[in-house]
Amino acid sequence: MVDQPGAPLRADDAVGWTIVRAARVLAREFEEAMRAHDLTPTQFGILNAIAESPGIGSGELARQVLGTPQAVGQLVGALEEAGLVARDRSQGPGRRAATKLTRRGRARLAAARRVTAALNAPEALGLTAREARALNAMLHRILEARAKETT
Fold it and tell me: Quick one: pLDDT at residue 147?
């Protein structure tokens, strides 16, 4: 690691670059795993968020999966067409439609969660359980710091 301010930073010493590289490797594995369940990573994130917060709005869904409300709305529509989610539109047009998982959606999510649990197991990541918890906490701090910069 470089100790002198202004000295050139080696790529292996750049935390952000290391995160990008690790994210690319993990993203490829995650995408492949989700493909086996006929889901994209973003669709998995949406199903997961709806399972944890039934009735969640598209704005909050977008924040959780790092997408735009419009794009998330389209994805929710596709998930609805696939029979994985249902929206209650009884409040009328222009009102937020409460979204929930269908039985089929819960089953698909349960299967996908088993795969993600294996991908996220500390030993699969080359970490101890304690290291995995610490890394996750640090990554959440980075996400929170970046979110504050963009608001």
Answer: 82
